[in-house]
Description:
By secondary structure, the protein is an alpha+beta fold. The protein is built from twelve helices and 38 strands. The model is unreliable at 1-12 (pLDDT under 50).
Amino acid sequence: MAVTPAVETPAARAVTLRRAGVELVLDLASGYPVVLHWGAPLGDVDADALRALKDGGIPHSDLDEPVDPGMLRESARGFTGRPAIRGHRAATGFSPLFTVTAVTMTDDACTVALVDAALEVSLELALALSPEGVLLIDAALTNDGDTVYTLDELALWLPVPDRATETLDFTGRWLKERQPQRLAFAPGLRLRESREGRSGHDYTIVQCALTPTTTTEAGEAWGLGLLWSGGSRHLAERAVTGRAALGAGELIEPGEAELEPGATYRAPTLAAVYSDEGLDGLGARSHAWLRSRPSHPSTPRPVTLNVWEAVYFDHDLDTLSRLAATAASVGVERFVLDDGWFGSRRDDWSGLGDWVVSTDVWPDGLGPLVAAVREHGMQFGLWFEGEMVNPDSDVYRAHPDWILQVPGRVPPLARHQLVLDLTNPEAYAHVLAQVHAVISEHSIDYIKWDHNRFLTDPGHEGVPAVRRQTEALYRLFDELKDRNPGLEIESCASGGGRIDLGMAFHADRFWTSDQNDALERQQIQRWTSLVIPPEMLGTHVGPTISHGTGRRHGIQMRAVTALFGHAGIEWNLLEATEEELSALREWTAFYRAHRGLLHGGRVVRVEHPDPSAVVHGVVAHDQASAIFAYVQCTTTSGTTPASFRLPGLDPAARYRVRAEQFAEPATVQRRGPAWLDGLEVSGAALASVGLRPPVLWPEQAVLVVVERVS
């Protein structure tokens, strides 16, 4: 790629980055970075014209010569909202004023060097548009002085147009993650913070600005996500001027970023995603970007059985061997042994931190079970929670100082456990050595890595350590993969408590939620997959009676729900009926036949007129095929349900549509719709007229397969 000569002065230049239907115009003419535009390409419009278009009148209450505060939002330039950088040098130097000193540009990236000579700090901003149109921004702040500079916050901000009058973010809790919140983009600051030392069940993954007419299928959306798994802030602010912006950055604990002379703070990368094709377009851009990574899982995602909700702590070689045989008979490709195989771990009160196989439960080691699993042609996976420790453990009794804590006190227990201090080299080495020893001894293919409590008093030798703990975990995952080529890692944190764009670059799969109730999973999966591609999200067929809600669901509802992700099973198959096992065989065969589409197509969240139902699907990029689900969540509004559309297909092509049933859904009807057994119709008709669903009982699902015939 050709690189233009560096611009050595800030004078009268604007940088335009344009790629994949996205354009960023960065104005440097005033000597500091101002985003004139982030969105769809504007055509033949130069920076001078954009400046004129954005220029407004001067109200009596403003500065005599008001200016755009730019990306840094500095008080010194007259900005009264939240600044991008907050810090000080022994209570002085609290108000930075940066000036551009140099700019380096390529066709799709630029680096802007800035300095505040009086404050003796310098800043480097690096902006790049990925081939998929995702804007990636990095920032590095360096202390050029000879005394300590205390950094309290460095957030990266981008303005959004005046027409973006709504915000969308996500809230949640254990068993109910990623619930959407769409609100007016009102004056003032909307702040979403994560203070758990992990992203958390309430984490938003992405924060969006929308126009009032934006839907999943159409309209504009601007979204920011942070490549970080520790403390974080997502911000949305509409200033008194009426202008609005989105921001995100690491939540820096007090004293966590004390920059010694010459030291540099590097902010987590910000991913900024724009779409003019609705929220699905934003998701498609994010999915394409993540799928382009060299580290993205490239092999077909195996049908996975996790035994947690099958046996819990009741480990028995004969039972688990029979379970493995049954799993293989229905098409399972990966068998995962969950909690309870190590140390004194017979319940959740003890053993965490002692990553050695329990001779009480496994007198001959794990070898016999591993051999039994592999004899059936399945991969073998194992559960760890390497960041945690029970006080009732050998490692804690020997090293009570190996926990995150404030000196002189022990944090409160949560799930009977404390957090190991991975910033302590000895504790880190202990975890790495013991976990690697078990993995390497059995050539384990896959580990499920849990994180069942949030951090409290997260300190190392009196100094806050959330940032370093997060970086240590990234190193640990990377080191385990380096030592064990081919190893895959699932990130779990009581389910969906650590799903973020940072962890996506170190883990291969996320356990989407501990909630396996198929009804609750509708919204959890629908919105977690807005940013994370479905092949990275674990979606399991749970037990007939949900362990999370007590609801009873038939195999069709559970199987259809689990199909749209990295599919698996979390159920004691030894208790399943022959009819259920037969349905599972059909389901796993269908999944294996169609996972290329499910894990490579465009995710579609259909706008449906009846709130009692949810409609979604995946459409192949060549529009040759698609799979849709119609889920009747509650009683339908009419005696015959509203038709559901199948958008995203080629309007001029003809398609054959049919229902795929692993078991008969429960209905209230004398006969079903005519299309269930197959119908040929145009893509335009499917997108506009749609299909009339059967009259289903609540909590039932229909799967629709679409294939182009001409």
